[in-house]
Amino acid sequence: MKQTFLWCLIAVSAIMGACSKKSDNPTPQPPGSTSGDTINIRGTITSNTTWSSNKVYRLRGYVYVDSPAVLTIEAGTKIISNKDSAGVLVIYKGAKIIAQGTKDKPIVFTSAEANPKPGDLGGVVLVGKATGNGNHAVLEGGVDDKHKLFGGNDDHDNSGILRYVRIEYGGKAVNPDDEINGLSLYTVGDGTTIEYIQVIRGLDDAYEFFGGSVNCRYLIAYNSADDDYDMDDGYHGKIQFAISIKDPGFTDKKTGGDLSHNFEVDNTNGSSKPYTATPITHPLLSNFTAIGPNNAANTSPDYGYGMRWRRGAQFELVNSIVIGGQKAGLDLDNDPTVQYYKDGISGFRNSFLHAVNNVTQVDKLNDPSLLSAAELKQLVTGRDGSIIFTNPADIQLTDPFNNAQPNVKPKAGSPALTGAKFDGNFNDSFFQKVNFIGAIGTDDWTQGWAVWNK
Prior knowledge:
Layout: H1 2-18, E1 19-20, E2 38-45, E3 49-51, E4 56-65, E5 70-73, E6 78-81, E7 88-91, E8 96-100, E9 107-111, E10 123-127, E11 160-168, E12 173-175, E13 178-179, E14 183-186, E15 193-200, E16 207-210, E17 216-222, E18 229-232, E19 238-245, E20 263-265, E21 284-291, E22 305-309, E23 316-318, E24 321-325, E25 328-333, H2 335-342, E26 347-349, E27 352-355, E28 360-363, H3 373-381, E29 387-388, E30 397-399, E31 407-410
Parallel strand pairs: 2-4, 3-5, 4-6, 4-7, 5-8, 6-9, 7-10, 8-11, 9-11, 10-14, 11-15, 14-16, 15-17, 16-18, 17-19, 18-20, 19-21, 20-22, 21-23, 21-24, 22-25, 23-26, 24-27, 25-28, 27-29
Antiparallel strand pairs: 1-2, 12-13, 30-31
């Protein structure tokens, strides 16, 4: 009896050492005595902590990792959340996460419910010290006052490693238009490693980049309700090899005329900061494959565009495939955004484009003579060397619109297997100089760790 009591006391002490004790954020409950027990995690982690693969970790509400703590998560570890207290893991400025899964043993954040639904989990949030333009003054999603601020002046800041990680059923809704995304990246620096990530069936965006310079590879957004790749606040990083796939019948609750897109990219919202605020959002993006609803049966009326570039954003998207956009394929909004495209600062180059309606679209101009949809189409197919397809089947992807088991790998003989170009800003050591257009060539990097039919 005394031995049992002593063991429990030691276990409690070990857990309390990893998390700070606060009246409103109690420490994790102690683990049980057998391998595989579930450990409930609450509060703030202030010292180096390891979550091991022989335990399951349940996030209870907001869990913060504060500087200088490093949270290490072993390959194969499962982190769960219940809908009554949707868990949000926040890696705050100066802290790090080392979550190195493997192809055979991915790290999985998911719902603990018997019938999982979007919003059972909150999401994962990284907050760094890189530069942004201050468009958002504080973090979204109801974080506490001590963790609201973000940003700095170190574009090489390092928030750690995320590799082979799945984030399922996220999207904590706090208020209208105030939600947690699957993976939120607030001014994260390019010292951070993010690759082989899949965000699945979230209530809000799959990925949102709030400023920062973080570079990423091998990203999948699958069946998220709002935008898959949302960028703003002066994000200026690089991304290569990424997939976006939409469930035709699934969008979040819309307010103010919002729509769901594969890409939604802004510089600012125009109210807190002007569209010209610096640093200007200017991502360098290569080898994306973005699949829209393609007018499937029961498509939500809230689906919009394959790409929406607006509010003063600059962008370069190359060697990519964007098909199935519902209301438009390539949409440019607002005068500065349109002028950047017209001047060649922005471009959708050396890529394939298809949409159900309005393959190119220009909206919300103060000067309507600046650029028309027809003139944009000429720039896309002429200067930028992209090809517009009236039938997406001509691109010869294996099964892109099969939402339950999508396959975006090109078939033998597909025009996507050759022709990639890496010039200008893309003649950079970050970008792998592959031959194919789109996210996947002959080798399917999604196999073995990504999941579908959720």
